[in-house]
Sequence to fold (468 residues):
Amino acid sequence: MITPNEPTVSPPVSLDLDLIRKHSIPGPRYTSYPPATQFVAAPDCREIDAAVDEDNRAGAGPISLYFHLPFCETRCWFCGCTTVITKRRLAAGDYLDDLAREMRLTAERMDTSRPVTQIHFGGGTPTFFPPDELRRLGALIREIFPNRETDCEFSVEIDPRRLTLEHVEALAAIGAHRASLGVQDTNPAVQLAIHRHQPHSLNERAFAWLRAHGFRSINVDLIFGLPLQTRDSFAHTVDDVLGLAPDRLSVFSYAHVPWIKPAQKIFDDRAQLPDAEQKLSMFAVAHEKLTAAGYLDIGLDHFAKPEDELAVALREGTLHRNFQGYSTRGGAALYSFGVSSISSTGDSYRQNLKTLPEWRAALAAGRLPTERGLRLSDEDLRRREIIMRLMCDRRLDFAALSRALRVDFRTRYAAELASLADLEADGIVVRTPDSVRVTPLGTPLLRVVAMRFDPHVTAGALQHSRTI
Ligand SMILES: C[S@@+](CC[C@H](N)C(=O)[O-])C[C@H]1O[C@@H](n2cnc3c(N)ncnc32)[C@H](O)[C@@H]1O
Ligand code: SF4
Fold:
């Protein structure tokens, strides 16, 4: 019998490139539903307070904390993240003063004795912060949110170029034990073209330090579709990275959005970007090499060793998805701090102001620095559950969903289910009277299946990157 959460995990299959060519269209990555592109401007303070109040009623559950540390010393020209480029090291201390203000303002409105189940430092480059400032941030978190679960997952994004042994010691001392390393590509010509000089020895050194300090589940980020990359050069990058034996890999498709990130225009001016076909061949070679090396395709951009918690969660049907991608922790309210960060509590999302001066000014005025957000309707909540089940379990179980959503799933979403006919004809999904299952061949097109349940997928979605 199939339990509501049981996912479909099958042995690795080769990619069907024709299928991907035919169906890969731009769309959200569903790190949230609705995606952040649907957030609306300035929810008023009462709404934010009401959302936080509701989330902190008696018996409120665990919390997850995210800290956006936006600084980078230099700009990588491909970068799509919210960053502040500076060499002024003192910026870190000033930022931390403001982060402390934001944490205290938020803490006044919530039950800070709630257990902390997950902490994540993202960026930007968290290790732009000198080790002492990282220790100060760690102490602040302990002081303001004192009730940390013993197995709290504490992860940090790391740029191996900006890492010292003292950083690793400071991170380990404040409780961090997971790391995600930005590698992107190990080829010197590609690195020159993206303005990111990173000899592979730096990656090896970072791994050695982190492992020696007890870090586990270490992830490496790679990007395919960068200037001057070819199938063969990317194959070498994957080989180099396999030599590090990471526990997980994120193999991102380069998102080219020069209208949002003007620094990316340089790639158009120099006509150095690989075309869609070359990009597909890079993804194919990475997929082939990683699965041959024993990594499991978790879905979207994620691969993990079969014994890694992420792979175990996929097998056991306990995988979750949040703003950082796939995760083993779910059900916690997410409180985020720092410029542009997004919080998710109950039926609402809130995103902070995106520039440093605006974020800082709001805090100086004693206001929570919220810029945009969304209160989810009942229908949004139902669609969120459907899309997350597809993304995490790769299947929809109609009986389980009818119970969870308190509607007759098959009748209510008959049109969406009917719209899967072409995907079924091409072997991407299998429909039975009781379920829809994404096939192993269809896994790279998971978000295309999810998009059939997303009423927001209209012209606006073309702002997103392609599925591959
Ligand atoms: C905050 S960075 C990681 C930490 C650190 N700043 C670094 O670069 O090493 C997050 C990751 O986002 C990915 N990324 C950034 N811009 C991207 C883009 N335009 N398309 C796809 N992935 C991108 C990169 O793989 C990067 O490692
Ligand atoms: S990729 Fe990382 S280091 Fe480079 S600019 Fe973006 S956030 Fe900074």
User: Anything to note?
Assistant: The chain is about 35% helix and 20% strand. The radius of gyration is 22 Å.
